[in-house]
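Open question from group meeting: does this chain pack into something compact, or does most of it stay loose? Before anyone orders reagents, we agreed to write out a predicted structure and look at it together. Recording both the input and the output here so the notebook holds the full record.
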Amino acid sequence: MSRSLDDPMAGTIPPELPFARHRAWYAALSLSLVVGALFRGWDLGLLSFWYDEVVTMRLARAPSPGALLDLLSRIDATRAPLHPLLLQGWLRIFGDGEAAGRSLSAACGVATIGLVGLIGRRAFDGPTGLLAAWFAAISPPLVAYSREARMYALLVLLTTACWWLLFEQAEGAWLIPRGRRKVARAGYAIGLAAMVYAHPLGMLMAATLGLGSLMFARALFGSPRSWLLVHLAGLAPALPWIPRYFDHPPEFLTGPLPIRSLLGTPIGFLGGNFVVLGAILALIAAGLWRRRDSPFVGGLGAGRWAWPACLGLWLVVPPLLLYGYSRLRNPVFGPSRYTLFVAPAYLVLVAQGLAVLPRVPRIAAALCVWFLVRPALLPLLLDPTLKADWRGFAATVAERLDERPAGRITVVVTSADPSRNVEVETARYYLPPACRVLAFEGDTPEIRRVGDGGETFLTVGVKGDASGPPPPDPPGGRWVPARDFPGLRVYRLEPDRPGDRPPAPAGRGPGASGR
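Structure tokens returned:
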């Protein structure tokens, strides 16, 4: 029992070790928690909401839970009620601004870091837990979705909590005494139901948890019968809601994607490319090989390879099921948020591969990971064009309405994605009620109403500093560049004056433009 905290084969820290050493591990873990909190909380309210966040905020600002559930089926394609209901109570405490709306996800993201560290220590050893927590703190997609008012950070937290509670039920668990195993089982069952209510993807993870725990049912639950009862207790409360996930078509389809997209799922969690992924997978395999003769203290009672096997299932099965569903029915596989909840398993496996290295190479490798994630991580904190600044534009429109109380303002919205003009809903969320908001559909009749004492603006969503040609002028007017905002190019409609346009060439119909 004389191994140091830095010993990669030290195993889970049992209670008989000196309390100072136990406290030192938590002190080291707290550094990752602080870093993760800084990344998730930095300028959290700087950017405006985007469409998906607007949907969530509209739900959470409903006057009652009943009104929220009624609105849910009309505006949110996921039909998942748990996060909006939690956010509804959260907003009543902290307000309904951008920072407040996103802070629930940020809190879930920070809690996930701690649980990833505990899982790494439980499954392998102390250094693995610390490295895994560090990776979770800086993983770009985990940071990104912890900075959005959506349910994905909550789903990752619930997933991680369920796996941790599952691991803690094994014989030989140090953190939860044997007499409190029933508490862990109850929490695990509640977590299963919560995952299903958090997102339809929760069903995939619930199935994976069931499969992983069934492989070690006697060690984890005492018997297959107990395993069945716990899972029935967890999933039965969610069964009435599941049909709502399948009674409507998906809002967004990616189209069929090649198998390469499935194989590259882990790349986004720490950056790099397929070459880097291959090197990391070799590192994972080498770490597990070196540990083949280690005691695997965390796996006592469930077999030497119980936790590596569970982590492998956690990483592989949900993306595989989602990809199969996409090929057979609705092609939804693709967005990183749909596979985000497998990231912790990958981070723990990478961490155990590094943890078997000597101290200096281990620290050097952890720093190399920082340079891998940096190109994707820093723009999340520093790029003002990451989301269109509808809040800033709305403030300008409100000022113009104040200056001209009798005037009318119309805003015509076109999107950076021509296939889905969802930005019109974001505009309606931010712009004053007195402002008419229209989706750009070419020759919209309202656009022709120029020179009637009102103003008309056209907004064009842009990504980054991208520039493009001006929009085509409508009959009777022309678009003049106005003040731009981050992620948003704005034009103002000016009516034509006599002689502004050249005469139409011969052979063209009346009213045809020479442009």
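Observations to bring back to the group:
The first strand starts at residue 409 and ends at 414.
Residues 408 and 454 are 4 Å apart (CA to CA).
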